[in-house]
Write a structure and sequence with these properties.
- Two copies of one chain form a homodimer.
- Chain A is α/β, with parallel strands linked by helices and about 325 residues long.
- Helix content of chain A is about 45%, strand content about 15%.
- The first copy, chain A, contains twelve helices and twelve strands.
- In chain A, the strands form three sheets. In chain A, strands 2-1-3-4-5-11 form a six-stranded parallel β-sheet, with helices on both faces. The first copy, chain A, has a four-stranded parallel β-sheet with strand order 7-6-8-9, sandwiched between helices.
- In chain A, helix 9 links the parallel strand 6 and strand 7.
- In chain A, helix 2 crosses helix 3 and helix 8 packs parallel to helix 9.
- At the A-B interface, helix 4, helix 5, strand 2, helix 6 and helix 11 of A face helix 4, helix 5, strand 2, helix 6 and helix 11 of B.
- The structure holds a DNA duplex (16 and 16 nucleotides).
Chain lengths: ~325, ~325
DNA sequence: GTGAAAGCGCTAACAC
DNA sequence: GTGTTAGCGCTTTCAC
C-alpha cells in the first residue's frame, strides 16, 4: 500500500491535521513539528494522494485540453504555448487527442469533466457534430474554445481573425500581379474552414482576382491531401490559376510538392500560400509565404478567459479574434 | 453544485447503492429500478465524479505519458500510437510535455503519481539527470520507458534497436560507394544519442568508411540546429565527407536545407540520411533516405509491459529493442 | 434484489 | 499552535 498522511503523522508523533498542514503549507506550525513531519515524510517516501486531496478540495489544479489532431504541428504549437502559460500558475495540463473523431473527442471531454479538471480548453474538430459534447462539458466546468469553435455561442472563443488572414494573403498575391486564384481547404465543416473560405472569396472579389469553382479543392488538413490537390492543379494545364491559396500550411506544403513534381515553377508558374507559419514552412522548397498565428498571445487570452471568476459578467460566447501577420517568403 | 449520486437516488426513489449499481453496471438490478435510475440520471444531467470513484476504487483508468518535446513530430507519432492502442482498453491517456527540461519532467512525473494514474509511459529527456525522477515515479506506479531510457535498469524499456538502425544507414551508404561520413547528433546525453553515436562508429569501422572528429557535429534535435550543422559542412569545402548521417530526421531536414543553400547537390556531392521517418521526410527536397521506427509496435509492447500483473515475475529492467526498417529515397 | 454502513485519504471548520 | 470531527462522492462488504 501507498504511504498515507496517517502513516507520516504517526511516525512524526503528531496529528494527521498537523501533518497535513506542513505538507500542504496551509498554516504555520511549530518548528519542531514541522521538522518531524518533513523528516517522517521523506523517510517514508510520502507522495501524497492527489485524488483524495482533489475530492476534498473540490478542485484539481489541472486543466484539460482537447485538440483535433496532435499530428498537426499547428496544434502542438498551440499546446506548447498553453502549457508554457499555464505553468506560471502552477497548474498542469492534461492533453487529449481527438484524432479528428467526434466520438473520441466526446469521450475525452466527458472523461475530463468526470475527472474534475478545473477548466477545459478545446478546439472542436467539427462544427455541429461537436456541439453537443462541447455544450455538455461547458455545463459542468469552465470551458473555452481555441482556434476552432462550434456554431452556437455556448462558450468563449479565442482564435485567429481568419478574414484578415485571407485579406493579407490575397493582398500579397494582388501586389504580385496575380489575377486568378484557386483555394484548397479541408472539406470537413468547421469554423476555420468556413471562415477562411468566405474570407478568401471576399478578398478575391475586393482585389479583383478571378476565382472558379473548379479551382476549389476540398481535402483534409494533411500534407498527403495537399499533394492530391496539387496534382489536380497540374492536370488542369493552362486552365490553372496563377496562384493557389491554401487553408493551412500542411496543405500548402503538399501542394507545393505536387506542383514541383509536375514540373511547375513556384512562384513563376503558380504562386502558393499557406496559413499558420509552421516551423517547416521555411524549410520547404521554395520557402512558404504564409500567415503567422500568434499562438503565445492566444494561449494567454484563453487562460485569462478560463480563469475569469464565475461571478463576474459571464456573458457566454465572448469571441476574441487575434490579428495574424503576413510572412513573405519565396512561394508568393 | 454538481449533481451527485445521492440526488439521482433520491429522485429515482431508490438507495444510493442501487443507483450506483445501475450507473456503474456493477450488478443486476430490477428492471423497474434500472429504468427509474437511468431516467433520473439523464433528467438531472448526472455526470458522475471520477475523483470520488477513483479514491474509492484505488484506480483511475488513466495512464500518463511524458515526452521530451511535443514539438518533435516523432514523439507525437508515438503518442498517437499509444493513444490508439490504449483506447482499445477503455482507458484514457494524459499527455505531458517536458519541453526538454528535466525540472518540468520531474514535476509532471510527480503530478501524475499524485493524481493516481494507473501507469506511466515516459521518454526521459536526459539520461542521468532524469534518473532520480524516473526512479521515484517508478517506485509508486507501474512505469515503462519508451524510446529513451535512463542508464540504470530501474524500469522496463521499449525502443528502437539503434545499432541495427545505424547499420542499415551506413550499409546503404557503403552500397552507394561512400567512403567517408560525418555524424550530426544532439549533444545532450541520452540513450538515443549515445547508442546512435556508438552504432555509427561501429558500422563505419565495419564497412570501412572513414570518419573524422571534425565531422561530428553536436546540436539539438531541431531543424534549426540541423541548418547550423549543415552550414559547418559547407564551410569545410573539399575537406567535407561524402555523406552526413543524422541522428534524427529533424536534423537531417535542416542539414539538407543548409547543404542545398550552400550550392551542394544531394546526394551527388553529399549524401544525407535521417532516422525516424517522419511524415515530413518524404516532402523535403530531395526526399530523405531514412530509417523507420515501428511506432505502432512500440506502443503495443509498452502497454503490454505496463499491464503485466505485478505478481508475475517483475524482473525490472526488461529491454525490448525493436527492429527498424530502411526507407530508401533520393538523399542517399 | 436491495439498502445501511463503512471508509478510500485528505482538508477545513471548529474547538481547545 | 494543535487536535477532534465531519465530511468530499463514491463503491463495496455485509446483512436482509
Amino acid at each position: 500500500m501507498a504511504v498515507t498522511l496517517a502513516d507520516v503523522a504517526l511516525r512524526a508523533g503528531v496529528s494527521i491535521t498537523t501533518a497535513s498542514r506542513v505538507l500542504a503549507r496551509s498554516r504555520t506550525v511549530s518548528p519542531g513539528a514541522q521538522a518531524a513531519v518533513e523528516r517522517a515524510a521523506t523517510e517514508l517516501g510520502y507522495a501524497g494522494n492527489g485524488v483524495a486531496r482533489a475530492l476534498r478540495r473540490q478542485r484539481t489544479d489541472a486543466v484539460g485540453m482537447v485538440v483535433p489532431s496532435i499530428r498537426n504541428p499547428f496544434f502542438t504549437a498551440l499546446v506548447d504555448a498553453v502549457e508554457r502559460t499555464l505553468q506560471t500558475t502552477g497548474r498542469v495540463l492534461y492533453l487529449c487527442d481527438a484524432r479528428d473523431d467526434v466520438e473520441v473527442e466526446a469521450r475525452h471531454l466527458r472523461s475530463l469533466v468526470a475527472r474534475g479538471v478545473d477548466g477545459i480548453v478545446v478546439s472542436p474538430c467539427a462544427d455541429d457534430r461537436s456541439t453537443a459534447a462541447v455544450v455538455e462539458a461547458a455545463a459542468h466546468v469552465p470551458l473555452v474554445q481555441l482556434d476552432r469553435h462550434v456554431p452556437e455561442p455556448v462558450a468563449d472563443w479565442v482564435g485567429l481573425d481568419d478574414r484578415v488572414a485571407m485579406d493579407l494573403v490575397v493582398g500579397r498575391l494582388a501586389e504580385r500581379g496575380v489575377r486568378s486564384a484557386g483555394f484548397v481547404t479541408a472539406s470537413i465543416a468547421n469554423s476555420s474552414t468556413r471562415e477562411r473560405a468566405a474570407g478568401f472569396a471576399d478578398a478575391c472579389a475586393r482585389f479583383g482576382i478571378r476565382t472558379d469553382p473548379r479551382w476549389t479543392v476540398p481535402a483534409a488538413f494533411t500534407i498527403a491531401d495537399g499533394v492530391d490537390a496539387g496534382a489536380r492543379f497540374v492536370e488542369l494545364g493552362t486552365d490553372r490559376p496563377a496562384a493557389v491559396v491554401c487553408a493551412d500550411d500542411l496543405l500548402a506544403i503538399g501542394v507545393t510538392h505536387a506542383l514541383v513534381a509536375g514540373g511547375l515553377r513556384i512562384p513563376e508558374d503558380v504562386a502558393v500560400t499557406g496559413l499558420d507559419d509552421l516551423e517547416f514552412a521555411r524549410y520547404v522548397t521554395p520557402p512558404l509565404t504564409t500567415v503567422r498565428q500568434p499562438t503565445t498571445r492566444m494561449a494567454e487570452e484563453v487562460l485569462r478567459l478560463l480563469d475569469r471568476a464565475p461571478s463576474t459578467d459571464r456573458t457566454p460566447g465572448v469571441r476574441i479574434a487575434l490579428p495574424p501577420a503576413l510572412v513573405v517568403r519565396a512561394s508568393a
